[in-house]
Specification:
CATH topology: Hypothetical upf0131 protein ytfp
InterPro entries: AIG2-like_dom, GGCT-like, GGCT-like_sf
Helix content: under 10%
Number of helices: 1
Shape: globular
Order of helices and strands: EEEHEEE
Structural class: mainly beta
CATH class: Alpha Beta
Strand content: over 45%
CATH superfamily: Gamma-glutamyl cyclotransferase-like
Number of strands: 6
Largest sheet: 6 strands, antiparallel
Distance between the termini: 33 Å
Protein name: AIG2 family protein
Pfam families: GGACT
Domain Gamma-glutamylcyclotransferase AIG2-like: 5-105
Number of domains: 1
């Protein structure tokens, strides 16, 4: 079984956590409307709901083992929650992909300005 995952922040190509997606199939770049990228701690970024936001990232087809690993790394249900979102790809195609959303308070976070508008 393959699942589509929207990678942003440190999971994108040439970033520190991209190795978690090793062996996964890169499908292209795209954006998710209604999300923004925020610095949720000094060393961690997270996607948060932002009505006017656009979060840019990459879509990968991942196997079940990789999805389970990402869930553990992202603290699925504790730090982040995985939700399906429509992703508008650069080629105009729309895909449904899993996005990890930050679960905790946002009032102490700051927008990064990176990967979001």
């Amino acid at each position: 079984m393959e699942a589509l995952v929207f990678a942003y922040g440190f999971f994108m190509q040439n970033r520190s956590n991209h190795g978690a997606l090793r062996g996964s199939r890169f499908l292209g770049r795209g954006k998710v409307k209604g999300l923004g990228l925020w610095a949720v701690t000094p060393r961690l970024v997270g996607a948060v709901r932002e009505p006017e936001g656009e979060l840019y990232g990459e879509v990968y087809a991942v196997d079940r083992l990789t999805l389970d690993f990402l869930d553990r790394v992202q603290g699925n249900g504790k730090l982040f929650r995985r939700e399906l979102f429509p992703v508008e790809m650069e080629n105009g195609e729309e895909l449904q992909a899993w996005v990890y959303l930050w679960l905790h308070r946002r009032d102490t976070c700051k927008t990064t300005g990176e990967g979001s508008t």
